[in-house]
Amino acid sequence: MIRINLLPFRAARKKENIKRQISIFVLTTLFAFAAMGYVYIQLESEVAAQQARKAELKKKLTKYDKTLKELKKLKKEIREIRAKLKVIRDLEKKKTGPVKLLDQIATAVPKEKLWLRSLKEKKGRLTLQGTAMDNETVALFMTNLEASPLIRTVDLKNTRLKRIKKYKLNVTDFVLECKTTAFKKKRKAKGKARKRR
Prior knowledge:
By secondary structure, this protein is of the alpha+beta class. It is 62% helix and 22% strand. It has a domain at 109-180: Gyrase A, domain 2.
């Protein structure tokens, strides 16, 4: 019988398996490092791109901040201008009422027969004092006043005959009291409506 010694063959095979395992381990390790290097490079390039984008967005934000500040400033100016315009409109409304009232009173005065000495207005009550040539002129003046859309009622408070010695002339001093629509009281309806709610 022939004996074959298989020990060297097994040892060689074992060495070969060890070499193969070492080479697989080294190749796997190299591949893992290469893959990690690739991922690292990719991530680095992505981080750099994001940082560049972030810097660009910051620049845009600074531009927008300037724009927002300008917008806030413009809104503030617009509010101030609107408030001023409201005040001007209110003043114009308040100004035109008395001017129209004075115009209508001046129109109602009979020319060269009646002279007004004083005119007082308080809370819709207008008091007129003056001098007329006679009682008929005072009556005509009262009729003219009642025809005015801004005057509701005209009441004669008193008349008094007066003698001007220098001119040898008799005249009539008078006091009239009128209610006007030029002055409007604040309505209390708003307060009542709030209470109902």
